[in-house]
Design goal:
The structure holds two protein chains of two kinds.
Chain A (H helix, E strand, L loop, with lengths): L7 H38 L2 H18 L5 H18 L2 E6 L3 E3 L2 E11 L4 E8 L1
Antiparallel strand pairs in A: 1-3, 2-3, 3-4
Chain B lengths: L6 H25 L8 H18 L10 H7 L3 H13 L9 E11 L2 E8 L12 E9 L14 E11 L1
Antiparallel strand pairs in B: 1-2, 1-4, 3-4
Helix pairs in contact in B: 2-4
The chains are: A alpha+beta, B alpha+beta.
């Protein structure tokens, strides 16, 4: 095989390089499909509407009962905590403290705690 | 003696053939991308739509006005709830209305137990490619002695759960 013309080797080598390059491009495209899935699953998993709704129902509670307590208020409080646990798999707790004066407004400090095992949400808000 | 100077050309031909086959395979297999994430996007949109509809029903028409959702729950108005919810859900800017179906139940507390009262029974429709989603909304009921079963007359918070799907 001496003195043979071996120029064709380069063509083979370049072909291999192109193939390896295409392989990595295919890998990137495959990964991008997975990225879309995890993003949407993350959005679905995050209980945005649940937390908004819980805040709203607690604000309704504060509007109605303030921090006076009493059996009617405690019943509603127990409803919110028990139904959250049973139907939403979320541990919920909230406390309403004595009203404070904020810029001339009487505001109730409300502490809200929410934990559904994936998302934990804690908030202290002055509600008036 | 056989002349073997053509052997290298044969090798090159085989290598080039393999490269072309590999390239063709890669091109064909990567052009059709199946994204599992795509299937969740309609679920997300449907969930948001349902939440918004419940929020609309929970909002009085005027300041201090009657809350439609509370009223419907108080009266256990199956037909009213069904028609109002589907009217908001299926409304489109133009063209035929959407084909969303729903069933609804209300979770309430009775002593230590959480009970479920089925407000709207599901109709006998099947969902197609899209899965059904569940949306919920808290409703506070005032003390009302005329309110019938099963909730009882005390002031309470109940959870309205709606399962909706596109048929």
């Amino acid at each position: 095989m001496a003195c043979m013309n071996e120029d064709g080797q380069w063509i083979v080598l370049m072909g291999l390089l192109v193939a390896v390059g295409l392989f990595f491009l295919a890998l990137i495209i495959n990964q991008s499909a997975l990225v879309g899935q995890t993003t949407v699953e993350g959005v679905l998993e995050f209980p945005k509407n649940d937390i908004r709704d819980l805040r709203e129902v607690i604000f309704d509670y504060v509007d109605k009962y303030g921090n006076t307590g009493g059996s009617a208020a405690n019943n509603v409080r127990d409803d919110i905590i028990a139904i959250s646990l049973d139907r939403k798999n979320a541990v919920v707790d909230f406390t309403v403290k004595d009203p404070v004066d904020i810029s001339g407004q009487r505001a109730y400090p409300v502490e809200i705690h929410y934990n559904n095992g994936v998302t934990v949400y804690d908030e202290t808000i002055y509600h008036y | 003696m056989v002349n073997d100077s053509g052997q290298l050309y044969t090798m090159e031909g085989i290598a080039a053939g393999l490269v072309m086959l590999l390239t063709a395979y890669l091109i064909l297999s990567t052009t059709s991308i199946y994204t599992p994430g795509d299937t969740h996007i309609p679920d997300m949109q449907l969930e948001q739509l349902g939440s918004d509809v419940l929020a609309m029903m929970d909002t009085p028409d005027s300041d201090g006005g009657e809350n439609h959702l509370v009223n419907l729950i108080n009266r256990s108005d199956r037909d009213g709830f069904n028609s109002t919810f589907l009217k908001y859900c299926n409304a489109r800017t133009n063209g035929d209305p959407d084909t969303i179906h729903m069933s609804a139940s209300v979770a309430y507390r009775d002593g230590d137990r959480i009970e479920e009262h089925q407000l709207v029974k599901p109709d006998e429709t099947w969902t197609g490619r899209e899965s059904a989603v569940r949306v919920t909304r808290w409703v506070q009921l005032d003390q009302q002695s005329t309110r019938g079963d099963p909730y009882g007359s005390r002031a309470q918070a109940v959870l309205v759960e709606v399962l909706l799907w596109r048929a």
